[in-house]
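Continued from yesterday's entry.
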Amino acid sequence: MKIEKIRISPDHKLAAFFLFFYAVIMVLAAFLSEGTYGGGDSWLHYQMARFAPKHPYLFLDQWGKPLYTTIACLPSQFGFMGIKLFNISCALLTAYLAYRMAKHQFEKFTWLAVVFVLSVPIYFVTTFSGLTESVFALCIMSAVYLFHIYRLSWAFVVISFLPFIRSEGFLFLPLFALLGVYYRRWLALPFLVTGFVVFTILGFIFKGTWNWVFGTNVYLTKPTNYGSGPWYHFFETHYATFGWAYSVFLIIAIMAFLFRFKKDFRNRELHIQFVLLFGGLVLYFAAHSYFWYKGIFGSAGLERVMAGVGPCIGYTAFCGFQFLIKSNFGRFRAALNIMLVLGVIWAFIMPRYVYSFPFELTKFQKMEKEAVEYLKANNLDMYPIYYQDPFFPVQLKADPFDDVKSLNLYQHSNKAFKPNAIVLWDSHLCPRESLLPLNVMESNKVLLLKRFADRDEYNANDTMEIRIYLTQ
């Protein structure tokens, strides 16, 4: 009996090659990075996931995001490298789902869906961090893919949990509801509240309130003082999020969507591309622009929030690319092909062009590390320690949620300092987050043990400091 060889299409081979290529690059960058992208938030999300089994209330902490903390709990037990490898895995799976969807929607160059998704600059660098955006993006792409393969009920279930990975997930629910209504899938629509129902019940059981989801949301209940900015802020910073190559392909995709809608309004795959992916991107982008403009919902105008819709950016740009290769430009075809190749190469190298990685510790973090080494050398790490920057307990290898030895200044700002405790005061976060400027800090009964100072890495006219105090 003759055994026939299984033929693997060139697209499958190229998709597998680039998934492997990106996996190698990301893992190497993760292992070679002493620092991380995302600063303190990256460290804190990791710490919450790691210590949640010891402090179960962290599983329902609204800032940490309940579903993210739950999912990331296991990999975080392997240290910060564990959480980085977990987020890299999420990104690779997201790209794979994008490729699977592209195989059904397009005829040529479908393997480029992997490249377009993983090369979005802000998305790429966020993958080797402890931030929530990689899981958020995977949830979106999983729901879109399930919708694509006619598993609408499961798509609605998956997307219903999105707000418990990042609060902005609520923005995507109306888009899925819109298509559910359009296709008259009345029995599937109730599944859109699955996540809300599950976490409401959990909140009632463990928190004792039915209004846990909204009533304890830190962005709704607590004012922030991050300021505000122009409504066009994220347009101005697109070079650090999308990059010029993606911006060009996105503009082409918009024109292509409008042109195709005019010709084929009932095309289901077009609905998926335009409503769920491009529509989600636009709604997310517009919402964050408004939040920063108004200075509400904890918005700090950070570019990294756009990583959450990185695959939406990538796949929409990929749709723009596909429109161009299928269009008839006559004698200009050869010139256009050259431009397309250059455009893809440009998009491919954008992450390295925009960001420097592997990530080193910042100048300030190196100073923080010196302060920790001073504590250890003088056996001061045995004292109860007050701190604000979550980088400190990471370096101390301490449980930051141990209210006996690790005391977060933000949570203890209204309480008197314990006697015979160490206070790690830093000039970056303590004045803003803990409302503890230097004059207020020194109005307490404290003894200055050590001062570290250097020129501020962001403003040469300022000085950045870390001071170590012993409370009296």
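--- second protein ---
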Amino acid sequence: MNISISQSPPIRLNPRQIAHYVLNNNLPAYDSNFSLAVRITNQYGKLSKLIAHIIILAILYMTIFRILENQLWELTGLPNLAKTLLILLLSIFTTEYLGRLWSAPESCTNLSIEIDDIRENEADYYYRVNYLISFLGIIDLLVILSILHNIVGSDLNSWPNYVVVLGLFKLSRYIPGIEIVGAVVKKERQILMASLISLGLLVVILSTALYLAERNAQPEVFKNISAALWWGIVTMTTTGYGDITPITSTGRIVGGIAMLVGMAMLAIPAGILASGFAEEIRYREQINNWQIISNLELFKDLDSNCIADITRHLRSIVLPKNTVVFKKNSAPDAIYFIADGAVEVQIHPRPPSTITLQKGDVFGETGLLENRKRNATIKTIRATRLMALDLQDFHRLANDHASLKKKVEFINLSRKTT
């Protein structure tokens, strides 16, 4: 017997909710409920992926067109097609912009409730203004205006035509790695800013010291402190162009100090970002685990402290396709939750139809609850990430949380009577 999220009828979303989901691949008011989020994904996930692929291709083509414009048309031999393609890009990005603006109120994390028209209009206005003044909202608008300038402008080399390159920032909506970079920098901004300010102060101090040491020996090179600042930036960032170098003994000592200090100071942001990445990935994995665990029937209605303890004791297991998780008649050692992927339950004799467990399902609980050997073989049918709760941890949690223990005892009793 397995415990999984029950199949429910399709969720009825209004057009604005659908627009928000297909453009953002999320619907915050429903994302906190894993089972609802899975059902929405099953209904609209393919459409969201199609829209994402269209926008990604448009962004890449737009950038290639701007950077390799002349070479592109020489290779393709279709110079007259340029304006037509620009109009197509303008249509895609304008539709996307208007869709995001219209559906912006759906970024609210609460389900809609009955409120009067005035309060509803105020809420809609707030979320739409928030999108308009956001970083990506401004980028969306600048890209549209730049493409429009490309179409109607006569000078193809004017700087507004190159603003479309900023559209690469739009990829952060579709490439998780870019979005994680932004999240880490935002979280660690105070420490990063402090280290950058410290580096800037040292650049000024050491550049001034080098100017005083070299101004008499190289008056043409070190005309003023501003010229020495270029040397300071190049040296302390370990770039080392070599266009400005000290020749006096004092100047070389200052230069050596600048190199060592520069390497030390640059190592600080690198360490901060590395630890920030690890923490952010761990945090997101815990949130994902929480969503899956809190919506499983076995743990449903448990308090947040109990679910938090369960999440902390989970260990992640990544298995390739066609890997046996455990065999029939093996000793029970853990309960397994499917975080991503799918597994097949192999029972002998085989049932009429194949039993497949998907993301969000749980297996291996029967042997653990009843303390008996496994009654089936479990095998992955594609690359799968599992979360395992070990036998000892499960019993320890059951002793610490009476609600969990009662839940387990009730499920075990119900199975014996069925």
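Residues 231 and 245 are 8 Å apart (CA to CA). The radius of gyration is 30 Å. Will compare against the first tomorrow.
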